[in-house]
Amino acid sequence: MSAVPVTLTEDELRRLKAPARRERLFRLASYFSPLLLLLLWELSSQLNLIDRRFFPAPSAIAQTAWRMVLSFELFDHIGATLRRVGVGYAMGAVPGIVMGLILGLSRPTRRILGPIFSALYPVPKIAILPLILLIFGVGDASKFVVIAIGVFFLMFYNTMSGVMQTPQIYMDVAKNAGASRFQTFRRIAFPAALPSIFTGLKLAAGSSYIIIAAAEFLGARSGVGFFIWASWQTFAVSRMFVGIVVISALGYLTILALEALERRFVPWAKH
After folding, report:
1. Is 57 left (phi over 0), alpha (psi -120 to 50) or beta?
2. Among candidates 258, 267, 143, which has minimal Cα distance to 203?
3. C-alpha–C-alpha distance, residues 244 and 106, integer Å
4. What are phi and psi of 214, to 5 degrees?
5. What is the pLDDT of residues 140-156, one digit of tens each?
6. Is 142 helix (H, G, I), strand (E, B) or coil?
7. C-alpha separations of 200 from 50, 109, 177 in Å
8. Helix, strand, coil share (%) of the chain residues, nearest 5
9. Which residues in 28-38 are b (16+ Cβ under 10 Å) and which e?
10. pLDDT for 63-109, tens place per residue?
């Protein structure tokens, strides 16, 4: 029995194609909306609709950035900030993951240490920066420590939540199969927690740049945060905007790199 071809009217075809057409429009809008914002900013500045003293034209900011690139001044500040963020990030992420796994797997340990972490977590990390400066000085050590503290709690809670959300049936099957605690951790708990761990890594990356910017305001002679603060003090607004854009771009690129690693090592997670 042969199939009867179905003929759709023009109106029905239009309705079927509408979702795909809207998706293309939204995709184009997502590509060009930042450019449109920059264009409106440029026109508003050139037509004196906004105060150039506080909002210089994007073209002026780009010229300032280009001069700083040619003089290599910008790269010195970026290098200092990346070094501090990288070291502090590692110092906080590794123990945060380890403690999250331990407390996620051990209920007695979680009952003993959980309230301590819950009490310490709400303390603003920038609020304790003066104390950290007193203990570790104004050098890079204080920057490492304040970043590590901020990263630790994000990694700890995300990792612990990931382990605790592991379906109990997986744990029961491993126990009935005679798996050791290390095998249960390696084959079940850790893979189940990886999506949450990467979520914590991305959140911690953004927080690291927020913390380092504030830390470099107070006790540094290099870094993007120091550069922003020094530009504000001299009312060099274009240079200040360059610093803001740079630190935003560094955070964005770091998160993109972590997302690429997540797709590589956690292919079973939903992206």
Report:
1. beta
2. 258
3. 43
4. -65, -40
5. 898 999 999 999 999 99
6. helix
7. 39, 21, 32
8. 80, 0, 20
9. eeeeeeeeeee
10. 988 988 888 888 989 999 999 999 999 999 999 999 998 898 888 88
Other residues' Cβ atoms within 10 Å of the Cβ of residue 266: 15
Helices (H), 106-189: 107-120, 129-136, 140-164, 168-176, 181-184
223 in the Ramachandran plot: left (φ > 0), alpha (ψ -120 to 50) or beta?
Answer: left
Encoded amino acid at 254, one letter: T
Q: What is the Cα 186 distance to its own chain's centre? A: 27
Q: DSSP class of residue 269?
A: S
Q: Which of 48-62, 148-162, 177-191, 256-270 bottoms out in mean pLDDT, i.e. has the lowest?
A: 177-191
Q: Which residues contact 114 (CB under 8 A, 6 or more apart)?
A: 103
- Here the tokens at position 174 are 């491993």
Q: What tokens were used for 144?
A: 């490492």
pTM: 0.80
Mean pLDDT of 151-178: 86
Give the side-chain half-sphere CA count within 13 A for 84: 34
Tell me the backbone φ, ψ of residue 222, rounded to 5 degrees.
-160, 170
Q: How far is it, in rounded angstroms, from Cα 262 to Cα 198?
A: 7
